[in-house]
Design goal:
The complex is a heterodimer. Chain A is mostly helical. Chain A is built from 13 helices and two strands, in the order αββαααααααααααα. Chain A starts with a helix and ends with a helix. Chain B has a six-stranded mixed β-sheet, sandwiched between helices. Chain B has a five-stranded antiparallel β-sheet with strand order 13-12-11-14-20. In chain B, α4 packs across α5. Classes of the chains: A mainly alpha, B alpha+beta. Chains A and B meet through α8, α9 and α13 of A and β6 and α3 of B. The structure holds adenosine-5'-triphosphate (ATP) and magnesium ion.
């Protein structure tokens, strides 16, 4: 009897321990993601007013007894009405998507090269990929101003080579934004790609060749599909922050560069319209998260189908 | 009694009787003075070999002796430093792996994890641009052959080790290569499954008539399966022979020891005749009499070698105590079920292994620990080796 009770206690403690371990990341997420999210969501439902804070309260105790909830979707309606926001959102997605594709095109060969180089070289090369992180992101973006401006390094070099007669306009264009984003986020593409490519079994490529596959086709039919998880992870790591990027379009982009991060910034700090800014932030999040969740669901369902077919 | 419970020796005999040896051996692989160096290290050293069409050929050797390297040169994954390889009469020097008429079954199986069993088997056929219906038919046939018809839609990670091995085999055979290269095909299987699969591989090879080149480090496996065996050591081929010839007529002590176990006694030729010879070995009490001619001349150093099962053990002195006998004490007995190995310490201090079949179920064997015994052998069973 006592033994059984003791057993029960240890079981409960063990289950509790397990729960505790799982609870840590949940508490973390709750504290540092969901709570700020809830605050921003709350502000997005309020109205702008002049004062501190610059928005109307959501809950009010009216006449001492009634809890008065005053929420409005007006800010969201405003986002849809004003073409600026939709345009900024679409333009952000476009810029982020194009940058992601270029980061993939540049990062894949780099990750492949590192993964296939001799063991002692790999760590050196990986370190080189991560080296820029030792300097501030802001300073690195500033450095690009020095490279891209009309009397900057790149133009001077091209003039010296004689490739061009007069300086190219590079700075404050969309091109500069693409360059900045691809440059800044390239490590986030390379690292997950490297991780998948490095653990790939090379005898699979030999098997493919043995069965009559030319090397490039072996790459397409074996290496590429097997590195898909790395491609997806790297692309997400580049695409998601790039959509909301503010510093790069602000420093390298021109007046015509339209990105949601810039709009958000000016709404918060120039117009001081916190409710609209919050609505922009929430809309961006939902529009980004929805496709990702959908994609994950789709993949899971595909996996399940494959499993069912196998049994 | 089912076939699989027969002792190994019986299986061997039945397997070898079944084999159809082609009337005119015709070489399908010619390896001509091939050397492979990795930096300073010579992995394969001046190997020349001819493998005949329809043959099941084994490369047998210890770890690191260059078996895999030789096989990989046949498949085209390594280029010989020197020498050349002909497959089906064609020089393979400049032929890349994907254009060679051989397929390989990898030791790790190397199944594509993102493809189903069916897709894995169809992979090679697709590369050849085979028609879809023909591919489907061939895949079904292959699955049937390896008895995995029900598992076609599974992914490799949903299979057991033995099933994966079969898929790898089916994939490598699907293209009907002229030669199938197998790198330790049964290495990952447990003993029982390995023995069963050995039989299946041999049967399959007989049916299909495809030349198999099997790499193995398991002497029994090579003995059971092969038409011919090549024994490799440190990158060199020491001897190429049928399992029977390799066992009964080994050329060197290394081969004799590697291919089964043997007791070798150093000695000198005391008498060298046309049809007999006498060898005196310091470790044996009596001279060794051999009723066949031996390599060497009177006074030269040779080794008189005896297989453990060709020695008899008795408590009584044998009929002719003047030759081919030695006296000793049973030091140890290793019971192996079907037979037992007796370790006898001779009067000279040398130990000799004797294998006896356990013919009765008696709990106490006739000869036991610490018994003084006579070991003796027949003159025709002595192998005389010069190195
Ligand atoms: N790419 C390589 N570079 C350097 N040395 C190599 C290379 N491949 C093989 N070797 C060396 O060549 C020798 C033969 O290797 P191989 O793989 O052919 O051995 P093996 O006979 O197949 O052995 P095992 O039974 O252990 O598989 C080994 O000593 C190995 O270290
Ligand atoms: Mg090997």
């Amino acid at each position: 009897m006592i033994a059984r009770a003791g057993q029960w206690v240890t079981e409960v403690l063990q289950a509790g321990g397990r729960r505790l371990v799982i609870a840590v990341p949940f508490v973390w997420l709750l504290l540092f993601f969901l709570a700020p999210f809830a605050i921003v969501a709350k502000i997005s439902l309020a109205e702008f007013r002049v004062g501190v804070p610059p928005y109307t309260p959501l809950f009010e105790i009216v006449e001492g007894a009634w809890l008065h909830i005053r929420a409005t979707l007006g800010n969201y309606a405003y986002l849809i009405d004003d073409p600026l926001y939709v345009a900024a959102y679409l333009s952000s997605v476009k810029i982020a998507a194009v940058s992601t594709v270029f980061a993939l095109l540049i990062g894949y060969p780099m990750a492949y090269g590192i993964a296939r180089s001799a063991q002692p070289w790999r760590n050196v090369l990986l370190l080189a990929v991560m080296l820029p992180f030792w300097t501030s992101f802001l300073i690195r973006v500033y450095a690009w101003i020095g490279i891209l401006r009309s009397n900057g390094l790149l133009n001077n070099f091209l003039l010296w080579l004689g490739v061009i007669d007069e300086p190219l306009v590079l700075l404050n264009t969309d091109l500069a934004v693409y360059i900045g984003i691809v440059y800044s986020y390239l490590p986030f593409m390379i690292l997950p790609l490297y991780a998948t490519l490095e653990k790939m079994d090379l005898s699979l490529l030999e098997a493919a060749q043995d069965l009559g596959c030319r090397p490039w086709k072996a790459f397409v039919t074996v290496t590429l599909p097997l590195s898909l998880p790395g491609i997806i992870a790297g692309s997400m790591l580049v695409f998601i922050p790039a959509v909301g990027e503010f510093v790069i379009p602000d420093l390298l982009g021109g007046p015509s560069t339209l990105m949601i991060g810039k709009v958000l910034w000016s709404e918060f700090f120039n117009n001081r319209d916190w409710p609209v800014a919050s609505a922009v932030a929430i809309a961006m999040l939902v529009l980004l998260v929805a496709p990702i969740v959908f994609f994950q669901r789709y993949r899971m369902r595909q996996d399940e189908k494959a499993r069912e077919a196998a049994l | 009694m089912s076939e699989s419970s027969l002792p190994a020796a019986h299986q061997q005999r039945s397997l070898q009787q079944k084999r159809i040896v082609p009337p005119n051996p015709e070489p399908v692989i010619v390896i001509d003075g091939v050397t492979k160096r990795f930096g300073d290290f010579t992995a394969v050293d001046d190997v020349s070999l001819t493998i005949d069409r329809g043959e099941l050929f084994s490369l047998l050797g210890g770890s690191g002796c260059g078996k895999t390297t030789l096989l990989r040169m046949l498949a085209g994954f390594e280029t010989p430093t020197k020498g050349r390889i002909l497959i089906d009469g064609q020089d393979m020097t400049d032929v890349p792996p994907y254009a060679r008429p051989v397929n390989m079954m990898f030791q790790s199986y190397a199944l594509f994890p993102h493809m189903t069993v069916e897709q894995n088997i169809a992979f090679g056929l697709k590369q050849d641009g085979m028609a879809r219906d023909a591919i489907r038919a061939r895949v079904a046939e292959m699955l049937d052959m390896v008895e995995l018809s029900a598992l076609g839609p599974r992914k490799p990670h949903q299979l057991s080790g033995g099933q994966r091995q079969r898929v790898a085999l089916a994939r490598a055979l699907a293209k009907r290569p002229k030669v199938l290269l197998l790198d330790e095909p049964l290495g990952a299987l447990d003993k029982k499954l390995r023995e069963r699969t050995q039989l299946e591989l041999v049967n399959l090879q007989c049916q299909l008539g495809i030349t198999f080149v099997v790499v193995t480090h398991d002497q029994e496996e090579a003995m059971t399966m092969s038409d011919r065996v090549a024994i490799m050591n440190q990158g060199r081929i020491l001897q190429v022979d049928s399992p029977h010839a390799m066992y009964e007529f080994p050329g060197t002590r290394f081969v004799a020891e590697f291919f089964g176990s043997i007791n070798a006694f150093e000695g000198t030729i005391a008498e060298d005749g046309l049809t007999h010879a006498v060898i005196s070995c310091p470790d044996l009490d009596a001279p060794v009499y051999v009723n066949h001619s031996v390599p060497g001349y009177e006074g030269s150093t040779v080794w008189a070698a005896l297989r453990p099962e060709k020695i008899t053990l008795s408590k009584q002195p044998p009929a002719d105590p003047a030759r081919n006998v030695a006296r000793g004490v049973v030091e140890d007995i290793v019971y192996l079920g079907g037979d037992s190995t007796y370790l006898v310490r001779l009067e000279s201090g040398r130990r000799i292994r004797v294998a006896l079949q356990n013919l009765t179920r008696a709990a106490e064997p006739e000869v036991t620990w610490d018994d003084a015994v006579w070991v003796s052998w027949r003159p025709e069973n002595v192998v005389v080796l010069t190195s």
